């Protein structure tokens, strides 16, 4: 644990030093960014037991962002790939009157928004970003493609979070972002993510 704190402190010092050296360069940055991401998140164990899902899940994201100088704004869509331990079966009748048995699955879809500040380590190549965000997600145990079938709500939600992020850019403006999300006092506790995307100049 001490090693983690020391690494984070060192990274912050590097970002602060770089931000002083590159102040004029970063203030002129105005870009948009698109990225897709995959992460691995964990949930509060008791909440996972209560909702009958696994306490860990992969998370997929599609994200759009803008950076104006040091200020960052992101928004996007997310989905947790929940492992369901309480599936149920129902008899479904399709449009042609054919009856068959189908099994439920746990679905999740969400939206999020983030606002933060960028600390350049090197102006156009490496940034340390610190963001806060809000995520709203909807989870359900349901039968796919059936609009009148029985379903159950799954109460797994993150809401407010803090996200430190390290972003690397190539000469062609491709990006790789490594981040950690921490959700205080929610069913979702946190997790690591990696994003791949593209940066373009706004003007």
Descriptive notes:
With 203 residues, the protein is of the alpha+beta class. It has a single domain, classed as Porin (Beta Barrel). Helices cover 16% and strands 59% of the residues. It contains three helices and eleven strands. It has helices at residues 2-21, 23-27, 45-51; strands at residues 30-43, 56-68, 71-81, 89-93, 99-103, 105-122, 126-142, 152-153, 159-169, 174-182, 188-201. An eight-stranded antiparallel β-barrel has the order 1-2-3-6-7-9-10-11. Strands 4-5 form a two-stranded antiparallel sheet. A hairpin with a 4-residue loop joins β9 (159-169) and β10. The longest helix has 20 residues, at 2-21. Residues 2-13 have low confidence and may be disordered.
List keywords for this structure.
203 residues, 8-stranded antiparallel beta barrel, Porin, elongated, 11 strands, alpha+beta, disordered N terminus, 3 helices
CATH class category label: Mainly Beta
If strands are numbered along the chain, what order do they take across the biggest sheet? 1-2-3-6-7-9-10-11
CATH architecture label: Beta Barrel
Order of helices and strands: HHEHEEEEEEEEEE
How many domain units? Answer: 1
Largest sheet: 8 strands, antiparallel, barrel
Can you give the mean pLDDT?
A: 85
Number of helices: 3
Signal peptide: 1-21
Keywords: Signal
Protein name: Outer membrane protein with beta-barrel domain
